[in-house]
Design brief:
Helix content is about 50%, strand content about 15%. The protein is elongated, with a radius of gyration of 40 Å. It is built from 24 helices and 17 strands. This is ATPase, Ca++ transporting, plasma membrane 4.
Length: about 700
Amino acid sequence: RMTVVQAFIGDSHFKKVPEPDAIEPRVLDMLVNSISINSAYTSDIQAPEREGGLPRHVGNKTECALLGLVLELKREYDSIRNEIPEEQHFKVYTFNSSRKSMSTVLKIPDVGFRMYSKGASEIILRKCSHILDAHGQPRIFKPKDREEMVCKVIEPMACEGLRTICVAYRDFPAEAGEPDWDNENEILSGLTCIAVVGIEDPVRPEVPEAITKCQCAGITVRMVTGDNINTARAIAAKCGILQPGKESLCLEGKEFNRLIRNEKGEVEQERLDKVWPNLRVLARSSPTDKHTLVKGIIDSTVGETRQVVAVTGDGTNDGPALKKADVGFAMGIAGTDVAKEASDIILTDDNFTSIVKAVMWGRNVYDSISKFLQFQLTVNVVAVIVAFTGACITQDSPLKAVQMLWVNLIMDTLASLALATEPPTESLLLRKPYGRNKPLISRTMMKNILGHAVFQLVIIFTLLFAGEKIFDIDSGRNAPLHSPPSEHYTIVFNVFVMMQLFNEINARKIHGERNVFEGIYKNPIFCSVVLGTFVLQIIIVQFGGKPFSCHPLTLDQWLWCVFIGVGELLWGQLVTSIPTRHLKFLKEAGHGITSEEIHEEDLTEGTDEIDHAEMELRRGQILWFRGLNRIQTQMDVVYTFQTGQAAVPGALRRQPSVVSQHNDATAVKTLSSPTHVGLSSSSSVTNSAGAPPTAAASSSTAGN
């Protein structure tokens, strides 16, 4: 909530909003009228929604802060607005990024015109030739006085993080005639300064912590603002964007453009690459500067990978930068429709912490997919090898069809429900971002997949070929075709499911973390899925009977199955202890498509299209040439009979050579003289199809 906290009025610098009695009445009236009239009438301060709450600011926040100053001075701006409605405004120079000021002109009968102006203090003061003194009388305002005010008033305010606004006016006497309102430079000069106010735009208490989290997450936060550089620097320091002891660059828009543009005024990527890595604050910037910075960072080749840029904005001028960025965040409350349309995400609460939540959820979704892949690939590898190898050796698959369907249900539906519902945690912000082409299956995941697959295969094959001796039961191998389910194969199936169940807990961590139970109780869906799967497995084994090819197991056998399943957790700790960097043979999988590959693919597609189009063209040309050859031959024969003379020797021999050389442009030219067939439309279609210039010229020549 922006608020006026300091003011320079009548040669006095007030460190807090003064009482109305402390200001000369004429100066006070001029200040109140200027603020009330020279602001959008849509800007308004309304009563709080609930008792004891803060008043609601509607419209432009800076103007609301100035209107709040009017109320603190015990005046009412509504009465002035009712007395002078918007229809009576003779001329309005609206605020824009290049002008950085707003002016409203009133026509006063028999007196002339009065113009009220407000805007960035250093810009308005440069256009002031007078200033109101303590008695409300205008006195000459020299450049020396301006420099003194900048040093003693504006810079101290800016260093405290205050946004400084200058309020001024100018009278145009009637006897001087109506000025040329289109000559803006002339109109906005010779102003008389009324006051300079310092507006506090307080940093929300949660913002510094949110920016710190972004920095820990490998995200560099930069401030691009239209404020004074001192104001921007102070706010950036409060937020934590500028940190002591770290090399940081703070620039104004003019200096930024001077550093990145060449003598012709063109932006050079090499120059920009020297500036943006250390740039943290860009003050007094234009929308073009913001777009240039975003585009420059995206196009930069300084790092190993392309930078991913997110931009926040609320104004219409932020549209190009929001559109250019990889991710555009628009403000839902203060944002304009243009900004919202150009953005990808709308922050409904206008809070920077929502960006941190977006980062957490984005990383969480990526990790959830990776967790599910790690679990499913492990199950797939083991199930396929066991089913195939077992069937080849024992002539019967250890895992029956219905059992495989149940395993598929575990590893598809239930596992995805359990692993994809993990809530995001703060730990996601303690690592650097993934690259744009980062593979879904990392080397650590590949290590986990192969490591657990080896453990499960060893256990399953041990039980398959020696299980009857270990548990002192009848062997299930080589059993007759329609024999009842055996304890042996039921134990194999049960152990397999138990290992998957406990490996599902291992799959919760994909970055080599040891504590796989961390935060498990915060995900009730995961706990419900694991417990529900365990209960269903008991029901299937004990009461599934022949449909599930299961024989009821004793309590001892169940305990052994669960014990072997728990071994998955212990084995997971052993696999985690193996350094991934030593396993050079492991490969990553699921790489994204690089820009070079995309470019190559596009070129290949284009080449195919050109080839197909050219082939169609050549087929058409062959038909045309054959037809033309036949006509020319017939004309030669007719001409021979008409004249009674032999045709020119070789004439009939020369024409077939055209057919055999239809690809040669020079051969096509021999057809131009004896024919008059129009092919102009064919020529234009050929060019649009992308045929080589020689082919297009050939068709055109033949047509003529």
